[in-house]
Amino acid sequence: MPDYDAILFDNDGVLVEPPSDETLRTAAEDAFRAVGVESPDEEHVAEILRGVTPESLDAVCGVYDLDPDEFWTARDRHASAAQRGEFREATRARYDDVAAIEELSHDFGVVSSNQHATIEFVLDHCEFRDLFDTYYGRELGLESLDRKKPNPHYLDRAMADLGAETALYVGDSESDVVAAHRAGLDSAFVRRDHCRGVELSVEPDYEVTDLWGVEKIVNGG
Fold first, then answer.
1. What keywords is this UniProt entry annotated with (predicted)?
2. What is the rounded distance in angstroms from the CA atom of residue 176 to the CA atom of residue 170?
3. Could you read off the pLDDT of 87-144 as tens digits, one per residue?
């Protein structure tokens, strides 16, 4: 049976439902308008929804002569506000199977590439605050874009907070698996409906269909 000091979790798609493309698209369009671009090209809107890199952001900003830091901060502010709206309007919620981990005795942390402000909101709205001992999302601003997964930066910080030497990181994307391995952690890939057909080019240590599977891993079931 694995003997982990801690269990770390991605947020979106693991603890709570992922944001919708429509929500992120509206937020991106609002961010463009906030910096004076009224009619951005659809391709450029799509480029900043998910998986943004410093290089792709620079390319988009170059088209409209935008300051990358100013635009990325606007994008994150609008994306965070839009996601909070999803929870308030009950179009997005926590997964019921979070109940599977609530009785585990491990230290818990959340490490997400979403905005830190969004994670703070989710912890309170979904009544997770007492469950997790530490949590990290990205700070507003361009610097945090370099620190998102698969960079293990926030995983390393969470491990330091917990004083843990061994941990399992639970995620729903290839970048989660890579970040875990770069941090020297085991990885568990949760193959929920939204990532059912995803093909990974890296091998997670475990693959499960829900958080009950995670509970079985750490309890040796």
1. Hydrolase
2. 8
3. 999 999 999 999 999 989 999 999 999 999 999 999 999 999 999 999 999 998 888 9
The single-letter code of the amino acid at 58 is D
Class of domain 6-17+93-219 (CATH, top level): alpha beta
- Predicted model pTM: 0.95
pLDDT value at residue 75: 96
User: At 202, is the secondary structure helix, strand, or coil?
Assistant: coil
Contacts for 35 with CB less than 8 Å, ≥ 6 apart: 64, 66, 67, 70, 71, 74
**Using CA atoms, how far apart are residues 123 and 68, in angstroms rounded to an integer?**
29
User: Which residue shows structure tokens 């798609």?
Assistant: 13
DSSP 155: H
List the domain boundaries for the chain: 6-17+93-219, 21-88
Rg (CA), the chain: 17
